[in-house]
């Protein structure tokens, strides 16, 4: 059985090695194996044969991470486990089947160190070759040197450097050079061979470095940025510096001198290599020096938002020009073309990031269009800046040196950029088209065919929207210049757009033709707007422009006709027709101005059209007609204004001399006598000042300067006139005597304004104020009295609602009597507060009228208010009585208002509330109390008229015949419904025997006689004289069916009855109680049958249990008591046999009957009924067997009893004879009689016991 991961010793082996090697604590391993994913990797390595590698590394967070393969690069140390073969690991075979060790985060450095410090010294040591053949030894040294050289070179390449490996035997170069100096020739030719091989290998390495060029990425079809160019020269300079340092080392110099000394053919080549490296290094340093300023500019460009690149293009190109003019090595077209191409790539890259190819066509069209336009501006700015700098290179001359021109073709630089710009322009055209055509969604065309044309436009919009959506949802990159599918989709898209433009041109033509006038025609042009610039739409619209000129010509004719009609109407009417609420002169001038604007507006729109409509002969004629119409309207305005200025002064002075007020002699009402001509002058000046085109007459200006004062006079007098006239026509007959004196004083004040004062009078403002204040004071006080009377009537209107209402205010609920006291208190509080308010308002009116409380005029006014109060109480009481009458009218289809509960209180059925006359708290008294509550409200307000003999208004209310008749009618209805309800209750007395008769007595008689004794039988005979006749099962069935039938009959009774439409009797409680009683009667018989079944079976079960136990006793000969007990059980079985044999079938019938009545018996009953017959038969059989068994014992006991009886008879005879002979039958004074009696008594008792 495999161990669990937590206990697996194999995991312990791995954990121990990992923690020791990586120097970690145990909790790191526990966290590692707590991850389900990590635990699965470890378990698969241990259990699966095909999983041969496990690498455990440390993550950046310090956690252990197992993996099934070596990672390409890691920044931390790791541990590896590799299986020897495809095997499953066991705890005992871990060391034998695994190769394990640690991995450095820099494996190449580790491998290089391994080769340098272990492999090479070990295999190159001659002491290790003592037993090897020389050929093998040389071959091993050669391979070791090759491995060492390759590792050295690769390590340099990883670091970006070209490392020149020293040749084999380089340590003997010094010795060889010394020998050459002494002898003139070298002893060991292998050293020269090794040096020449090294020169060849170095030559290849250095030539590869020198051949590298920064344009390689461009030639490979990549899109490098200027960072690539700058990095290339930086790395090249560092690499050449490294090579130059190695070539200048002392060891390499000795190698060169040795080759030269031996006159090696590779010595010149070695010298050339050194010279080439030096020249290339000088070039790289020069280029790095001049390209360094560009580093910051390109970084700023890359880190800046693309729209902000505009400001950096100029400085960048300026710096490029400086590099071109000053660098010795970077001023060649090849170098500059590479830099400029990479700059183009950078701009393209930034434009792509800014535009986001995936969203440029799918995002908001307006936003995308703005981005595209910005991108094009930046890219074209770079191209134009290049051209500008190219043309002005001579500005960078220095010290008379000539700057080499950029004579290479711009295509070498901008071919890729031009392709990208063209692609962006294509996207721009698509977006512009989308902007124009998506506007069709909101385009609504009017006119006769407007709806149909609008539907066509919407159809075109939907089709274009679908086309545009399909085009923009393509998954490819729309800015990928190699994407031919996009170009094909653009061609198809433009074809569909052209089709849409053709159909749109047709719609424009129809809409233009359908335009009802010039204004609508211009609206059509405005609606289509920029769509008319589409070539295909513009071609259709070209023929419609001349029609505009014709329409304008008709418009001028129409205006001329309006002018003629206006002049004719002015001559016929005698005044100038103007717009509503406009004065005559200003209105006429405004009319002429509007007519001028009517023809000026379309004339100005002609100038904004792209098509020169008015340059034709027809256009010139229309222009002339337009100028004539404008001159005609100018002459009209001038003549109208001059006529007004001639008469305005004289008429104004006359109107100012009129009296301030005029009075109608018939109605005695007054009015302000301010002539409308004066108001007209003021209005004319107001409108003319607003126009600021005409010179206003001095007289009119003077009147207008006093307009504030005049309007102040008029406004105050209007207030005075309004207040006075309101008092006159609103004054009541009962109020007039109270203010008669105050009216006379005001008329005396007004007479001055009617006769002597006019609008030119001096210092009349104080007089106007005094009159206004007097009139307004009287009007205000009179209005307040009327408001107080209205407030009194409002208070009384609040009474005109029923005091009582149905529950929750619903029409189908009963009268709410539970909150009767609360309702009465609330209504009474309303009446009392209203009464207090009425008394207060009446007192306020006395003060406002400035009257005397004892005057006859005031008493008449109080009686007027008192009659209002009586009417208010009458309406309130009538409303409540009418509520009761309306809701107790049996002819109306209404819900019941009252309810009585019919309850069964044995031995009677009673109503709640009682519906019998004379009983306390009856329904009659309830309604009477409600009516009294209603009438009592009239006693809650003290009488206003203190001179009246009654303290309140209740006597008045009770004396009103209408209210008395309503009250009497309501009580008659109450009496009638009470009688009807009692008759209904009496009809239910037929069920009284159910709750009056004694059920126990009934059951006793039924069980004795099979029926209940009749009254005759009960009177004539006693129970002893009536023969008993126990009931049969059919008798029980009859009784149960009878009561079930009664139950169904009562169940069918309606629980709720409504009498006379408004009285509801709720008999649910009574019906429930009666049904419960009937069920008790029925259940009494059922329960008796249930008890009979259960008791019979229980008794039989107990008897069988006792009999079985008794009959099972073993009786031995001589066991008299045991025999007697068994004989007793046999006798009991015999006595019960007939009744028990016949009991099972009746019991089953009884159970069947109970099932009919849905009476369930306990499960034990059915079990007993199933088991007891068999048990009874077993007892009977057992009794027969026991009887046979005890028969011999019984015979023995019988014989013994006979012997005992014979012996007893002998003893009895002897005792008798002894008693006869020795008994106390004779008197003997010497004998003790009582002792003798006792002796014989004891003997007799002893015999009896036997």
What key attributes describe this structure?
4-stranded antiparallel β-sheet, 4-stranded mixed β-sheet, 10 strands, disordered N terminus
Report on the structure:
The structure is a single chain. By secondary structure, the protein is mainly alpha-helical. 68% of the residues lie in helices and 4% in strands. The chain is built from 42 helices and 10 strands. A 4-stranded antiparallel beta sheet has the order 2-1-3-4. Strand 7 (898-905) and strand 8 (908-912) form a beta hairpin. It is flat and about 195 Å long.
Provide a compact summary of the structure.
With 1250 residues, this protein is mainly alpha-helical. Helix content is 68%, strand content 4%. It is flat.
How does the SSE layout of this entry go?
Blueprint: H1 9-22, H2 26-33, H3 36-47, E1 53-58, E2 64-67, E3 78-83, H4 94-97, E4 98-103, H5 107-124, H6 134-158, H7 173-183, H8 189-211, H9 216-219, H10 226-247, H11 250-261, H12 267-303, H13 310-326, H14 333-355, H15 365-391, H16 411-438, H17 450-472, H18 484-514, H19 518-528, H20 535-541, H21 545-573, H22 584-606, H23 617-656, E5 661-663, E6 670-672, H24 676-691, H25 698-705, H26 707-730, H27 736-755, H28 765-797, H29 820-849, H30 856-886, E7 898-905, E8 908-912, H31 923-935, H32 954-959, H33 961-986, H34 992-996, H35 999-1009, H36 1015-1020, H37 1033-1051, E9 1056-1059, E10 1063-1066, H38 1068-1111, H39 1120-1141, H40 1144-1156, H41 1163-1222, H42 1233-1249
Parallel strand pairs: 7-10
Antiparallel strand pairs: 1-2, 1-3, 3-4, 5-6, 7-8, 9-10
């Amino acid at each position: 059985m495999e161990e669990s991961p937590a206990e697996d010793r194999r995991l312990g082996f791995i954990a121990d090695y990992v923690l020791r090697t990586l120097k970690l604590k145990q909790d790191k391993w526990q966290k590692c194996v707590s991850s389900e994913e990590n635990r699965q990797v470890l378990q698969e390595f241990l259990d699966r044969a095909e999983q041969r590698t496990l690498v455990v590394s440390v993550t950046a967070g310090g956690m252990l991470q197992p993996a099934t393969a070596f990672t390409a690069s890691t920044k931390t140390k790791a541990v590896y486990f590799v299986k020897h073969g495809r095997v499953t690991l066991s705890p005992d075979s871990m060391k034998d089947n695994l190769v394990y060790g640690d991995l450095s985060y820099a494996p190449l450095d580790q491998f290089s160190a391994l080769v340098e410090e272990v492999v090479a010294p070990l295999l190159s040591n001659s002491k290790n070759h003592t037993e090897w053949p020389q050929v093998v030894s040389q071959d091993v040294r050669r391979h070791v040197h090759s491995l060492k050289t390759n590792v050295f070179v690769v390590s340099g390449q990883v670091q970006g450097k070209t490392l020149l490996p020293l040749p084999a035997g380089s340590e003997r170069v010094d010795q060889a050079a010394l020998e050459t100096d002494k002898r003139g020739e070298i002893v060991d030719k292998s050293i020269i061979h090794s040096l020449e091989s090294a020169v060849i290998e170095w030559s290849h390495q250095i030539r590869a470095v020198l051949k590298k060029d920064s344009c390689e990425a461009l030639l490979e079809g990549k899109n490098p940025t200027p960072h690539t160019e700058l990095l290339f020269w930086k790395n090249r300079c560092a690499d050449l510096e490294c090579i130059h340092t190695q070539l200048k080392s002392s060891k390499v110099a000795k190698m060169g001198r040795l080759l030269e000394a031996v006159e090696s053919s590779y010595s010149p080549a070695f010298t050339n290599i050194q010279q080439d490296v030096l020249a290339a290094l000088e070039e790289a340093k020069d280029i790095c020096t001049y390209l360094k300023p560009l580093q910051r500019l390109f970084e700023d460009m890359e880190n800046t938002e693309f729209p902000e690149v505009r400001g950096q293009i100029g400085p960048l190109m300026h710096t490029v020009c400086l590099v071109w003019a000053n660098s010795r090595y970077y001023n060649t077209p090849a170098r500059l073309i590479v830099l400029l191409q990479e700059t183009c790539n950078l701009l393209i890259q930034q434009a792509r990031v800014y535009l986001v190819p995936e969203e440029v066509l799918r995002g908001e069209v307006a936003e995308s269009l703005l981005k595209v336009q910005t991108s094009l501006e930046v890219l074209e700015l770079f191209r134009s800046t290049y051209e500008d700098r190219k043309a002005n290179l001579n500005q960078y001359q220095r010290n008379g040196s000539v700057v080499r021109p950029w004579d290479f073709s711009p295509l070498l630089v901008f071919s890729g950029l031009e392709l990208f710009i063209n692609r962006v322009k294509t996207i721009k055209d698509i977006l512009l088209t989308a902007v124009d055509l998506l506007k069709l969604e909101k385009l609504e065309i009017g006119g006769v065919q407007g709806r149909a044309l609008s539907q066509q436009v919407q159809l075109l919009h939907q089709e274009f929207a679908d086309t545009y959506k399909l085009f923009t949802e393509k998954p490819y990159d729309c800015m990928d210049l190699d994407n031919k599918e996009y170009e094909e989709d653009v061609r198809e898209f433009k074809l569909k757009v052209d089709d849409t433009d053709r159909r749109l041109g047709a719609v424009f033509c129809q809409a233009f033709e359908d335009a009802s006038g010039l204004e609508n025609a211009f609206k059509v042009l405005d609606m289509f707007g920029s769509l008319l610039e589409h070539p295909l739409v513009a071609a259709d619209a070209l023929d419609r422009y001349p029609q505009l000129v014709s329409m304008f010509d008709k418009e001028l004719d129409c205006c001329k006709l309006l002018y003629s009609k206006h002049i004719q109407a002015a001559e016929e009417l005698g005044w100038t027709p103007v717009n509503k609420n406009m004065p005559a002169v200003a209105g006429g001038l405004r009319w002429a101005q509007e007519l001028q604007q009517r023809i000026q507006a379309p004339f100005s729109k002609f100038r904004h059209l792209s098509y020169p409509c008015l340059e034709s002969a027809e256009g010139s004629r229309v222009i002339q007609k337009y100028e004539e119409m404008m001159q005609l309207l100018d002459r009209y305005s001038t003549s109208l204004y001059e006529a007004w200025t001639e008469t305005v002064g004289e008429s104004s002075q006359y109107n100012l001399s009129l009296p301030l007020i005029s009075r109608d002699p018939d109605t005695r009402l007054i009015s302000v006598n301010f002539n409308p001509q004066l108001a007209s002058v003021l209005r004319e000046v107001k409108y003319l000042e607003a126009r600021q085109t005409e010179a206003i007459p001095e007289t009119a200006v003077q009147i207008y300067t006093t307009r504030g004062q005049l309007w102040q006079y008029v406004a105050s007098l209007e207030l005075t006139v309004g207040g006075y006239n309101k008092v006159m026509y609103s004054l009541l007959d009962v109020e007039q005597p109270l203010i008669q004196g105050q009216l006379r004083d005001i008329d005396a004040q007004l007479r001055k304004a009617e006769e002597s004062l006019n609008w030119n009078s001096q210092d009349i403002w104080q007089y106007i104020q005094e009159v206004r204040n007097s009139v307004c004071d009287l009007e205000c006080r009179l209005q307040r009295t009327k408001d107080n009377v209205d407030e009194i009537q409002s208070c009384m209107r609040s009474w005109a609602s029923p005091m009582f209402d149905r529950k929750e205010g619903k029409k189908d609920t009963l009268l709410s009597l539970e909150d009767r006291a609360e309702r009465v208190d609330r209504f009474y509080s309303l009446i009392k507060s209203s009464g207090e308010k009425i008394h207060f308002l009446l007192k306020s009116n006395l003060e406002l009228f400035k009257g005397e409380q004892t005057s006859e005029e005031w008493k008449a006014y109080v009686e007027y208010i008192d009659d209002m109060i009586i009417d208010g109480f009458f309406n309130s009481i009538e409303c409540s009585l009418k509520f009761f009458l309306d809701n107790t009218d049996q002819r109306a289809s209404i819900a019941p208002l009252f309810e009585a509960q019919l309850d069964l209180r044995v031995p009677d059925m009673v109503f709640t509330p009682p519906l019998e006359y004379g009983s306390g708290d009856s329904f009659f008294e309830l309604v009477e109390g409600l009516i009294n509550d209603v009438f009592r409200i009239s006693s809650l307000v003290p009488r206003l008229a203190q001179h009246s003999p009654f303290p309140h208004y209740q006597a008045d209310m009770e004396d009103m015949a209408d209210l008395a008749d309503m009250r009497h009618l309501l009580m008659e209805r109450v009496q009638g419904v009470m009688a009807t309800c009692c008759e209904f209750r009496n009809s239910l007395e037929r069920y009284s025997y159910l709750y009056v008769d004694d059920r126990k007595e009934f059951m006793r008689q039924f069980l004795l006689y099979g029926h209940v004794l009749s009254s005759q039988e009960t009177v004539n005979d006693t129970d002893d004289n009536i023969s008993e006749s126990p009931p049969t099962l059919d008798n029980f069935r009859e009784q149960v069916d009878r009561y079930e039938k009664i139950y169904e009959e009562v169940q069918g009774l309606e629980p709720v009855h409504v009498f006379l439409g408004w009285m509801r009797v709720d008999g649910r409680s009574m019906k429930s109680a009666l049904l419960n009683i009937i069920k008790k009667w029925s259940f009494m018989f059922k329960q008796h049958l249930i008890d009979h079944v259960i008791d019979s079976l229980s008794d039989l079960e107990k008897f069988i249990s006792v009999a079985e136990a008794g009959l099972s006793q073993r009786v031995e000969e001589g066991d008299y008591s045991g025999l007697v007990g068994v004989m007793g059980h046999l006798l009991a079985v015999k006595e019960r046999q007939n009744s028990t044999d016949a009991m099972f079938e009746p019991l089953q019938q009884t159970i069947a009957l109970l099932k009919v009545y849905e009476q369930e018996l306990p499960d034990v009953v059915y079990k007993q009924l199933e088991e007891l017959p068999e048990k009874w038969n077993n007892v009977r059989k057992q009794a027969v067997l026991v009887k046979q068994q005890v028969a011999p014992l019984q015979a023995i006991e019988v014989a013994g009893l006979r012997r005992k009886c014979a012996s007893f008879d002998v003893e009895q005879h002897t005792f008798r004879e002894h008693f006869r002979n020795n008994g106390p039958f004779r008197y003997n004074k010497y004998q003790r009689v009582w002792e003798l009696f006792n002796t014989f008594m004891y003997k007799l008792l002893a015999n009896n016991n036997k």
